[in-house]
Amino acid sequence: MNNHLLDEQRVAIQAVRVACSITTKVFQTLTSAESVTKKDKSPVTIGDFSAQAAVNHILLKHFPGDKIVGEEDSHDLQGEQGAPNRHKVSQLVNEALQASRYIDAPLSDDQLLQTIDDGVFEGGSDARFWTLDPIDGTKGFLRGGQYAVCLALIDKGRVELGVMGCPNLPRDKSQPKPKDGEIRGSKMEGLGALFVAVRGHGAYAVPIDDEQAELVPVRMRDLQGSFKGAAFCESVEASHSSLGTNARIAQILGMSDNHVRMDSQAKYASISRGDGDVYLRLPVGVGTYREKIWDHAAGALLVEEAGGRVSDIAGRPLNFGLGRTLAANRGVIACQTPMHAKLVDAVAQALKEEGRAALLAEP
To answer: Quick one: which residues bind Mg(2+) (predicted)?
Structure first.
């Protein structure tokens, strides 16, 4: 691995590993079938807050001058109403930080809440800051499917470093992905991959739970000029992307019906190592939703450093310097760089056929 941003790489990897240990423990001890069937979000709420608190604490211990754009704030943990979840979060965070030797004495409740709120920075184009999604893929996490802990360093609007932990993704891409819920009660053998990307210095993968393992380079699969044998990685939830439009795009490109559906930025990780080839997150309806920067920063850099290109649906680069959202972009698409222009054209054709060509204009 290169020496560029070496301290930032080391700290970010440590932070994501600690966060993944927390989320895994939350899943194993707090989730149940009722969490999914009754849409009980309390486990993922506790996991979100705990992972964000741990990552924020570690980052600011090493880089006290940096800012953080996190997904959560502490409002729901405050007061008597928030006490039950606050107690659980406090226990998880303090156990994890003490085990990793980041603290000697437990954080107080006030320190815990402040640490979570250290993630309320608004971002922008003139600062160096981190952006964090503590559990990306809420429903995947609850089902025992794919989710990710995603952390990226952005400097003056450009993503420079991305680290992504995927606790339920097989370390070996040839190993079948576990079906939803299969990991409940299992030893999770062969699962847990961590991905690292540094701008201009490549993309790498390593087991989450092996701190001595060396980072191994990853590359996208070479499509050799044809989408015929390519596979989509797309969202499980229809509300997250226009799956019907995806199917039409596949038809236009001559792709087979070979789609992989999974939650979270694990889709970026999968295509970065050739376990899938094309990522589509197309606007639903009239396209009023604006993507959050923490949902794409780490994954986009990972794909780019693995030989791909990531853009919005019209081929515009993603702009991470406009605050907490990708305000200048609609949707996200990604594939191997030499094939990207063909993908942009196919997206445009499909949207025009649907009467949604207006989505291609600048927001």
So the answer is: 71, 133, 135-136, 295
